[in-house]
Amino acid sequence: MSRTDLAAVVGCARVVLLDFDGPVCSIFAQRPASTVAHELRRLLVDQGVTLPAEILHEPDPLAVLRFTATLGRPAVARQVEEALCREEVTAARTAEPTPYGREVIVAAHQTGRRVAVVSNNSAGSIHAYLTGRRLTSYVHPVIGRAPANPDRMKPNPAPVLDAVRELHADPEHCVLVGDSLSDIEAAHAAGVASIGYANKRGKRERFAAADAVIDSMAELVAAFAVDEL
Amino acid sequence: MSLDPDDPRTPSQQIAAALRAEIKTGKFAPGEKLPSQHDLVERFSVARETIKAALRKLQDERLIVTRQGSGTFVRANTERPVGLRPHVERAFEATNVTIDFAGFSGETLYNAIQETLDKVRIGRLTPESIRLRVLISDMTAPMAIPCRAEDQADDPAIRARARRITDRSIHAVTDAVQELADLGLVKTATADVRVHKAAPLFKLFIINEQEAFFGFYPVVEHTVMIDGKPMAIYDAMGKDAILFPFTPSDEDSSNDALYVEQARAWFDSMWGTIAREYAS
């Protein structure tokens, strides 16, 4: 993936859709995701749920949430959802900003681009982070996880399309930046260009379907071509 | 002009419409005084209350302003800053010119003064002396603004960037003034620059000790390149700031004269106490 790909993708993008955990911050930097997943499991066990082997050691709380939705017990699903929301809001307070994540948001704004967040995390936790970092005025809308409806999470294109619709934007003029394959798939299904943020070793290879791949968010700032930089 | 009895609008609506048209077509220019209520009563042959109601409408539409005791005026529809440059140029028609500037980078100063200095160079303006004093924030000292946006912390690298920008315009101005003295075009020309450790929050021009211009620097976030890497910073942004003019006249009852007096006192107090020589 070359620099020209990135310039071409970013050049025609009037709207930048950012995944939250990854491109903006590392939400579970201080409160590890695996600890949160463990808390959710305990809650399920308390409700008499038998956990299958693959969930027993699952470090991703969102995977535990997805499993919960398959149980056919709406009350339990709601309870887990609420617990996860609480955990995410707590984690947002100690989240670590992604290097140059802020710069991307501010530079996008400077160059007349609109910025939205499309995330599988709860909207409450995203708002908490953006408020704490004085970033709310740059970001609209914030599309978080649809409560108690894990099927609607990315790679489902629904949340991406929600953002596009809310901005009255043309999908052709939007680009989504994400650090997981589900982001790229959701963007593709929504007809939106995608940029893979390879923030960990080995990720670059998984982003074959992305329109461009970056190793640092700083590359994105450069691609915005801010005159006054 | 009389009102049309067949017009379904009330008399006050008709009068408001007539005056509105005269303002919008430029019959009354921005800043111009409207006829008195007494004159309008005669002109339209209506009660004073009807005139008052019509004027209230125009006031609500922000077309006119009423100044207690002095009458009703057409609002200057573009309440923009009065351009600084023409004032600077007029100031150079005086024998002894003084300009005091306090602010962030001096870019506005450079833009405002450059053309006028050129006119001195070609002999179009011939003051005998020019004294320029520039008072700016010391970017070698820790500052509240500019700072890093992420953690609102002071950063020497950000200040170094601000200093480079400042140096450029300050040098351009001081060199241009010095050149006029070297060429013997003015008897004396001095440009002194001093710095203080307060963060830049506003800019102030005092021209010939008689007029002042004041503008706020809003704190604005933008991404800039610092040592080759993008960084979001909180910065004092002056280039779009409206400059408020304080230009007292002899019959002026407003606070402009007092403002200029206090601005001069403030400038002198800074200049003579905590400000230090600018080492460039």
Looking at the structure, what is the overall shape of chain B? elongated
> SS-based structural class of chain B?
alpha+beta
Amount of helix of chain A? 40-55%
Task: Specify which chain pair forms the largest interface.
Answer: A-B, 16 and 11 residues
Mean pLDDT across all amino acids of chain B: 89
Short description:
Chain A is of the alpha/beta class. Chain A is built from 11 helices and 8 strands.
What does this structure look like?
Chain A: InterPro entries: HAD-like_hydrolase_sf, HAD-like_sf, HAD-SF_hydro_IA, HAD_2, HAD_sf. Chain A: It comes from Plantactinospora soyae. Chain A: One of its GO terms (molecular function) is phosphoglycolate phosphatase activity. Chain A: This is HAD superfamily hydrolase (TIGR01509 family). Chain A: One of its GO terms (biological process) is DNA repair. The complex is a heterodimer of chains A (229) and B (280). With 229 residues, chain A is α/β, with parallel strands linked by helices. Chain A is built from eleven helices and eight strands. A six-stranded parallel sheet of chain A has the order 5-4-1-6-7-8, with helices on both faces. A two-stranded antiparallel sheet of chain A has the order 2-3. In chain A, helix 10 links the parallel strand 7 and strand 8 (212-214). Chain A is globular. The model of chain A has no long low-confidence stretch (mean pLDDT 94). Chain B is of the alpha+beta class and 280 residues long. In chain B, 36% of the residues lie in helices and 25% in strands. Chain B has seven helices and twelve strands. Chain B has helices at 11-24, 37-44, 48-60, 84-91, 107-121, 156-182, 256-272; strands spanning 64-67, 71-74, 96-103, 129-137, 147-148, 188-196, 202-207, 211-216, 219-226, 229-236, 244-246, 276-277. In chain B, helix 1 packs across helix 3 (48-60), helix 2 packs across helix 3 (48-60) and helix 4 (84-91) packs across helix 5 (107-121). Residues 77-81 of chain B have low confidence and may be disordered. Classes of the chains: A alpha/beta (229), B alpha+beta (280). Chains A and B meet through helix 6 and helix 11 of A and strand 9 and strand 10 of B.
